[in-house]
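anyone seen this seq b4? input:
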Amino acid sequence: MTSEIAIEAPVLSAGELYERLLHQSNLFILDVRNEQDYARWRVEGRSNLAGINLPYYDFLEDEEAAIARIPADREVLVVCAKEGSSQYVAGLLGQHGITASYLEGGIVSWGDYYDLRTVAEFPAGKIIQVARPARGDVSFVVISDGAAAVIDPLRHIAHYQALVEAAGARFTALLDTHVHADHISGGPALAAASGATYYVHAYDAIHPIDMLPARIAYTHIDESVQISLGRTTIKTIWYPGHTLGQVNYLLEEPDGGRYLFTGDGIFLRSFGRPDLGGRGEAWTPVLYESMYERLPRHLTDATMIMPSHFSTLDEGGENGMFLASWANVQRDNERSPGAAWKSLPVSCSVTCRTFRRSTSRSSA
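predicted toks r here
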């Protein structure tokens, strides 16, 4: 068994790997899992990250040929499923004069890694970004005067519980911008554990395909709901299009700071697709109206945009923060208002007005 082969090699933790990826180091990723597993999921970083998939068994069958494919002038990180095979290969490379380490816990540890960092501090409180970089998922915790709200909480709730406990705060609101299709929300579990209210728009409590209602406990939230959190205020902005129940949350603090949690509505370099609910033709003009009419009136150029996803680390800085001012998003986001959809037909606005009239009664 591979795990019984004792070959010394340096080890890199998931946290250390993340810092190296953020800072664009000279790291070269050697993934020794099989081709199918590699195709499904692998370590990704900035656009210049180099790597190769060379299954572990290649090193057993023809050691010299396999090692010849590895750059000798790069620092190599070997990745496998759980650590054993990568530890062996890293030791083998070291014996051949190649600087190599292995990922502690393998790709599993990378997938489960959460990064917590404070992204904003102000007299009334602070905002902590809680990211799961292997999946490109981002959530945020707002703390003010001992009250805590979580926006788009991710699946593993222990991270939020430890963070809020360490801050001497308590959960008061759990806010999903929408029902996510790509990961499990931690909102219901946190609500059950803490007693805090879990909010989501009722339109997202109905499945867009089979129209069945949600089986989870939730409190409907719409633009009439404003949440007081310590000395800050969280306002709700309905932003249908990616889903019909997508909302944005606008945090306003006493000194004038404004932070918009956009979920999948607007990313730093793109926007949420309108076709994932199976109704792309109908929802595209709805998203158009949200982007051009519903949202801009709530924003200033200095409002910080804080999405719930990133596609590559290039979207953030070396500080690991995934946020930007509205002015910068409009400048850098090729698909933001002013840059995208200018070729859409005028008929879209007619469809939007029809949708607005048809939903105004139910959303009131």
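The two ends are 64 Å apart (CA to CA). DSSP finds eleven helices and 18 strands in the chain. kinda curious what u guys think
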